[in-house]
Amino acid sequence: MKKLSILGSTGSIGKNTLEVISAHRDRFKVVALAAGNNIEMLEAQIIEFRPDVAAVFDEAAAEELKKKNLPVEILGGQKGMIDVATLDSVDTVVSAISGSAGLVPTHEAIKAGKNIALATKEALVMAGKIIMAEASERGVSIIPVDSEHSAVFQCLDGRDIEEVEKIMLTASGGPFLKRGPDELKNVTPAEALNHPNWDMGRKITIDSATLMNKGLEVIEAYWLFNVPVEKIGVVLHPQSIIHSMVRFIDGSVIAQMSVPDMKGPISYALSYPERLGKVLPTLDLAEIRELTFEEPDVKRFPSLAITYDALRAGGTMPCVLNAANEAAVEAFLDERIPFTDIFRVVSDTMAEHEVSDGETIEEVINVSEWAKEKAKEVIEAVRIH
Ligand code: MG
Predict the structure, then answer these.
(1) Taking the model in full, what pTM does it have?
(2) N or C: more exposed end of the chain, with fewer CB within 10 A?
(3) Domains and CATH numbers, the chain
């Protein structure tokens, strides 16, 4: 029986994880749950899954939840998140806190020797070098939950990375694949939040619309699979049936396909190296009929170019990209900047950064805070008055 701690249990990945678990209660025990501030949903999850411990990042919300006298120990704040990530009785931590807030608990979990089912890509984008070094030192496995990386992981199937010619991440292209440059300027948050294929959280849905999510995934792949930047490519595939592909040195391409549903990669990360039954609906290719592919348009969506620049600059630059993007997405959702200025805020913030090695988590967090402040200055300069 795998003993799990789920960080980010009330988010989209967290909810899907609990759905997978509830269909396989004989395989998994939920030892701990952690959420940001949604205590109504957390309370329902506590009642259903009976964990030993629950943590709420928001201290006031944690106090509120304690008043309910639930049969569980309730912790609060950053310390509560870390405690839940490092519990002795847990062997696998599902890391699914959205955004940079997930970095520290994930790092602490690895230091405590926990295996990680990783959905929080920001942990690798901000501190990939530190995270992967720590994981290898502790003999901890990091199994990707992100659908593209799960696909690559399944295609590689333990093969030597020397046999890989190219990792090809697929991208749906988001809701604005067909919009011209002028139309893009005027898209609203409501339109951007309406993703054609995947049902996800707000931040990542905007990142999908800008293709910045794919950029972050390129960085994630770089660290997870330890390949040179040149060996990672992106291809648009609007149907989201192929979740990514690997081309090997003999020219053979292996692709992983399924109905687009996060329960697929979540279940694989939880049960690896086995596969669980009854996870996804049957994929009917004859009904889908067509799988299409095209090159991403980096003129309309400069995110990928910006990402490769950040990876080549190395060190703390990807961390700056991530922080500036978080600030820019927030400003777009608040209707303070137009959609197309998200790219400008990120690249202008990066231009102000002097790269350092990023050797410690503290350094990375300081750089991330610096970048958020710098991005806010850039936003003030470009904002809609
Ligand atoms: Mg993804």
Answers:
(1) 0.95
(2) C
(3) 2-144 (3.40.50.720)
